[in-house]
Amino acid sequence: MMTEPVPRARLRRLIRRARVGDTEAFEELVRPLADSLYRMAASCLRGRESDIADALQATVLAGWEHLGELERPAYFKTWLLRICINECRRITRSTRASEPLEAVPEALLADPSEHEMPAGGENEEFLALVHAAGDANAPAVALFYGEGCTVREIAGMLGISEEAVRQRLSRGRKRIAASLAQGEAEEAAPRPQPAKDAPQPPTASGAGPRAPNAGATALPHRRPTA
C-alpha cells in the first residue's frame, strides 16, 4: 500500500522549482502521494465522498500556498499528510466556507475524483478495518499500518504524545479484532429460509464503507516503536 519515495536529490530539486511557481514540479511531488492522501482523508471522514473531495483539494491548495514553510524537503510526505489531517478536522468541525481560487494555478484544480481509489479489493478492505478502529483511533491506525509512519511521526502529525499514539493503536486493534469476530459469528449463523414464492427484499448497495467481515484482510503484524 505504501508508495515508492521520490529520491531525495530529485525531491529537493522539485521543491525548489515548485517554490518559484513551477506547477508541473508540484504536481510531480503530489502525484505519488494521491493514494496516501485519499486513504488518510477517507479514514478521517468515514468515506463521505463529498467531504473527502473537499479535503483533498484543500490539502493540495494549502500545500502549494505554504510550500515555502517546509523546512526539510525529506519530510514532504509527512508534512502534506499533516495538512490533510488538519483539513479533515476543519471539515469535521464545521462546513468550510468556499475559498477564493482566482490566484491558484488552474493546473492544481484538477477534479479530486481523479485521486479517488477504486471501490473493492484491498483498499476497501483496509478502510473498512480502519473505520472499525473507531473515529478517535482511525487516523493513527491508517498512518501506522497504511503509510508505515513511526509512532514519533504520528505523534507529531496528530499533535499528541507518543504514549497516546500507542494507546490509540492498541484500542484500535482491539476494536478491529472484535468487529472481525462479530463478522465471523454472523457469517456462521444459520440464515432463515424464505417462504416458497415469497418476494425477495432488495439488496442495499452504495451505502458507504462496508463493515469488516470474515473475508476482510487483517492488519499486518506490526508493533509500535518510536
TrEMBL record:
Entry annotated with the keyword ATP-binding: no
Family label: Belongs to the sigma-70 factor family. ECF subfamily.
Keywords from the named record: Sigma factor, Transcription, Transcription regulation
SUPFAM superfamilies per record: Sigma2 domain of RNA polymerase sigma factors, Sigma3 and sigma4 domains of RNA polymerase sigma factors
RNA polymerase sigma-70 region domain segment(s): 29-96
RNA polymerase sigma factor 70 region 4 type domain: residues covered: 140-176
Protein name stated in the entry: Sigma-70 family RNA polymerase sigma factor
GO molecular function, one term: sigma factor activity
One biological process term in Gene Ontology: DNA-templated transcription initiation
Gene3D superfamilies: 1.10.1740.10, Winged helix-like DNA-binding domain superfamily/Winged helix DNA-binding domain
Region (Disordered): 176-226
InterPro entries assigned: RNA_pol_sigma-70-like, RNA_pol_sigma-70_dom, RNA_pol_sigma70_r2, RNA_pol_sigma70_r4_t2, RNA_pol_sigma_r2, RNA_pol_sigma_r3/r4-like, WH-like_DNA-bd_sf
Top-level taxonomy: Bacteria, Bacillati, Actinomycetota, Coriobacteriia, Eggerthellales
